[in-house]
Each structure stands twice: as structure tokens, then as C-alpha cells.
Design a protein that fits this description.
A 4-stranded mixed beta sheet has the order 2-1-3-4, with helices on both faces. Helices cover about 40% and strands about 20% of the residues. It starts with a strand and ends with a helix. The protein has about 80 residues and is of the alpha+beta class. Keywords: Cytoplasm, Disulfide bond, Electron transport, Redox-active center, Transport. Has a glutathione-disulfide oxidoreductase activity in the presence of NADPH and glutathione reductase. Reduces low molecular weight disulfides and proteins. It holds the Pfam family Glutaredoxin.
């Protein structure tokens, strides 16, 4: 199973939706709450190519994007192969 990292913030409905999809697929993930650890936000922005919104999701270091991107990847059939790698 690949390493999945999600940068999130408490109270963010998009973060909750993204985490819910990953849980539905029985995927373990590391969560970095940039609200509680604001020193990690610049890291997220740099790794995501300048994106400042949460969530930002990475699978084995590959930037997947935000919640909408994750769902679009799943609907297009591209998420499961990434998670099976």
C-alpha cells in the first residue's frame, strides 16, 4: 500500500470528504493539520506547486490535488491503481 499524506485543517468539510473517501477504500493516511501546525503550511504550498487551500493530498509523494481532484481521479478510474501500487 502506498504512503498517503493529506494536509488538512479541523472543521474543513472538503478535508472531511477526502478523508472519508480514503477510509471507504481502507487506505491509511498520514494527516498533517496545518491549522494546528502552521509551520507546516509553507511545506504544503511548496510541495503542491503553490496551492494554498486544504486539503492537499499526496500519494507516494505525487501531488493528487484537493478534494475535488481526488474524487475526479476516483470517478475516472485512476485512484485505485495508484492505491494498489
Amino acid at each position: 500500500m502506498p504512503t498517503v499524506t493529506i494536509y488538512s485543517r479541523v472543521g474543513c468539510p472538503y478535508c472531511d470528504m477526502a478523508k472519508s473517501l480514503l477510509r471507504q477504500k481502507s487506505v491509511a493516511f498520514d494527516e498533517i493539520d496545518v491549522g494546528r501546525a502552521p509551520d507546516r503550511r509553507p511545506e504544503m504550498i511548496a510541495k503542491s506547486g503553490g496551492r494554498t487551500t486544504v486539503p492537499q493530498i499526496f500519494i507516494d509523494g505525487r501531488h493528487v490535488g484537493g478534494c475535488d481532484d481526488l474524487y475526479a481521479l476516483d470517478e475516472g478510474g485512476g485512484l485505485d491503481p495508484l492505491l494498489a501500487a
